[in-house]
Design goal:
CATH class: Mainly Beta
Radius of gyration: 19 Å
Pfam family, one: 4HBT_3C
GO molecular function: fatty acyl-CoA hydrolase activity
CATH architecture: Beta Barrel
CATH superfamily: Acyl-CoA thioesterase, double hotdog domain
Order of helices and strands: HEEHEEEEHHEEHHEEEE
Structural class: alpha+beta
Number of strands: 12
Protein name: Acyl-CoA thioesterase II
Family: Belongs to the C/M/P thioester hydrolase family.
Number of helices: 6
Keywords: Hydrolase
Strand content: 35-45%
Length: 311
């Protein structure tokens, strides 16, 4: 096996600890008239010493969700990734209340860390705006999930990467708290042989083991998990893989619309495609369906993607 076999329950429980941000005193030096709360959270170690963007988004969702009136749940969020995070320092989340209406609440959160120079007191790594709504009835229609094989019959990431002696492969196989199973051929190690026709990618995902968490943290888990695979449809269309030499990628912005709320312990089908790559950037559009085929969320992500010396 690749790496040390993990305890799935412990890894999944670690995700809840990671997303369960702790409230701290608002620093008046950085507060605005709209500031309502501040939180702090740590980072999970990653290969290469970086901070996973989905972690910061999930923690930001947890932070803003704790400042809205009871009964309101997130229905949309938009995040800009402004700087890489440093896993050696806690991340601070300052929440500003932009609006509290009869049924909607809008919040802004800045995720910051200490600056890297004496002149830089604080560095913003993520800026998010999120909107919350009370449960309401209204018009309904939706797209339905495409046909896909059941996740139980698909190989796990650990099985796909079995025998690969690489730190990223070991982490993905043993420490990733989300169970990701590709319907389309995985491109961890090699390009999709059908890349010319592969304009759609599908993966099943859920927590590695069942977790006990409140509804807000299940929304945060969806934000966390949505950031694992959006680059892959771009790589597929370009005939690339995660192992392509000289490949550099970084998320620029990421948006999610929650149409229905789900239990992250249950399988979700994430259907993704890339409509455009231009100017050193790639765009991915994703739809998340539950096991019953209902559309529960829509995701878009734009990222910087470059391959050194590729014409």
């Amino acid at each position: 096996m690749t790496g040390t076999p993990c305890d799935p329950a412990a890894v999944a429980a670690g995700l809840i600890d990671l997303l369960d941000v702790r409230e701290i005193v608002v620093d008046p030096a950085f507060a605005t008239p709209a500031t309502v709360a501040a939180y702090e959270a740590d980072s999970s170690p990653q290969p290469g010493g970086h901070v996973f963007g989905g972690q910061v988004m999930g923690q930001a969702v947890a932070a803003v969700g704790r400042t809205v009136p009871e009964g309101r749940r997130i229905h949309s969020m938009y995040s800009y990734f402004l700087a890489p995070g440093d896993p050696g320092h806690p991340i601070r989340f300052q929440v500003d209340a932009l609006r509290d209406g009869n049924s909607f609440s809008v919040r802004r959160v800045l995720a910051t860390q200490p600056g890297r120079t004496p002149e830089e007191a604080e560095r913003t790594i993520l800026a998010m705006t999120a909107s919350f709504q009370e449960q309401q009835d209204g018009l309904e229609h939706q797209e339905r999930a495409p046909d896909a094989p059941d996740p139980e019959g698909l190989p796990t990431t650990a099985q796909v990467l079995d025998g690969i002696d690489h730190p990223v492969a070991r982490y993905w196989a043993t420490q990733r708290p989300i169970d990701i199973r590709h319907v389309t051929d995985p491109i961890y190690l090699r390009p999709d042989p059908a890349s010319d026709a592969a304009d759609t990618q599908m993966v099943w995902m859920r927590t590695l083991a069942p977790v006990e968490a409140d509804p807000l943290l299940h929304d945060a888990i969806l934000a966390f998990a949505s950031d694992y695979t959006p680059f892959e449809p771009i790589l597929r269309r370009q005939g690339l893989s995660w192992m392509t030499p000289g490949l550099r990628m970084a998320t620029i912005d990421h948006a999610i619309w929650w149409h229905r709320h789900v239990d992250a312990n249950e399988w979700l089908l994430y259907v993704q495609r890339s409509p455009s790559a231009a100017g050193g950037r790639g765009l991915t559009h994703g739809q998340v369906f539950d096991r019953a085929g209902d559309l529960v969320a829509t995701v878009t992500q734009e990222g910087m993607i470059r391959v050194k010396d590729r014409t």
